Amino acid sequence: MEILSNCILRFKEFYVVYGDPSSENSCSNVLLTNSLTIVVDCWTFQVDASVGNSEASIGMTQKGCADLGDAVMAVNFISVCCVLEGELRAINLALQVAKSKGISKLIESDSIVAVKGFSFGSLLFGWDSFPLFLDCINRFKEFEFVEIVVYFLFYY
Description:
The chain is an alpha/beta fold. The chain has helices spanning 2-15, 83-100, 112-120, 130-140, and strands at residues 30-33, 42-52, 55-63, 73-79, 104-109, 146-150.
């Protein structure tokens, strides 16, 4: 029972991200939601990272492409200091690909810490990843519209 209580406390700790949505790092073109909005002329990217032993496999895929041959996908294998860094690197990869394709975009992530952090422009923890976090925020500013959607694998 004590293990369950500790798990629930840890979940609550990570679920809540404190910050000021009007901070200098927040982006006015970033929308935080839990479901996709239909936006014309935007691509939807799903990003994720799998982290173990300080190494991460990261990837991004384009969703909803009518012709599979036209879909965009990118993967990488990198060293990371924490799970949050892996998630941020996957998001950053999607931002780089989207910029190189000259598109406005939507992005999905299952990292609620990263997603909520973007809406406030700050992180509660994960300071080793903060420079990468700021790089993502700066890349958001290059786009006309960004929607960050929290999704969880158990919804699929």
